[in-house]
Write a structure and sequence with these properties.
Layout: H1 2-31, H2 38-48, E1 57-64, E2 67-74, E3 79-86, E4 94-103, E5 108-111, E6 114-119, E7 122-130, E8 138-143, E9 148-151, E10 157-165, E11 172-177, E12 183-187, E13 193-195
Antiparallel strand pairs: 1-2, 2-3, 3-4, 5-13, 6-7, 7-10, 8-9, 8-11, 11-12
Length: about 200
């Protein structure tokens, strides 16, 4: 008798968990369409902005706290997009905000664009834009708290991201270096771009 009750309880528990799992698999995509990759998770947002979404690729992804800063590039249409994303259940992808439709300006050598968004009492900050000088081999961003990040340009773009506490001031300076490590350009909020003469 005791064994039958125990078996029935285990069977009922298994059935409950199967119902929960199936419900999550059916209901979650209704609220977050195509959450299986970063590319498909932003597709609906880009289409809502009347931007092409089938030809984008992820060129840079930086984990910043609980969020991911993702840079997308569309080579066919020469557009780039930046979005913050999170990972519900550690498997799925969800767009948490961003912007898209940035075009390349052939008259700009280097431009500093940065911004961010508040989430969970933190400020998720990013710096992203184009690099249009073949002499630039390395870019370094110096954040307002002294932290430095460096990278090489990817497909004519750079991408930095990090998280600040709610009371920290987020600002940045962008430094561009040549192959020998010499400083070529320095951009900040007072000089946010270098244009061709």
């Amino acid at each position: 008798m005791q064994e039958r009750l125990l078996m029935r309880e285990r069977r009922n528990r298994l059935i409950r968990w199967l119902i929960i799992a199936v419900s999550v698999m059916i209901l979650f995509p209704l609220y977050y369409p195509s959450p299986w990759s970063p590319k498909t998770a932003v597709r609906q947002t880009l289409e809502g902005m009347a931007l092409p979404s089938d030809t984008i690729e992820v060129v840079s992804m930086i984990q910043t706290g609980s969020m991911y800063s993702v840079l997308f590039y569309d080579e066919e249409h020469e557009l780039y997009h930046h979005f913050f994303m999170d990972r519900p259940f550690g498997v799925l992808w969800r767009n948490s905000g961003g912007d898209g439709g940035y075009t390349f300006d052939p008259n700009e050598i280097l431009k500093m664009s940065w911004g961010g968004q508040r989430e969970d009492d933190n400020w998720y900050s990013y710096a992203v834009d184009q690099v249009n000088d073949p002499r630039i081999r390395t870019l370094t961003v110096e954040w307002s708290d002294g932290v430095k990040q460096s990278m090489q340009p990817i497909k004519g773009l750079y991408h930095f991201a990090r998280v600040f506490g709610k009371d920290e001031k987020a600002a940045a300076v962008l430094l561009a270096y040549d192959a020998e490590g010499r400083l070529i350009y320095r951009l900040d909020e007072n000089q946010p771009a270098i244009r061709k003469q």
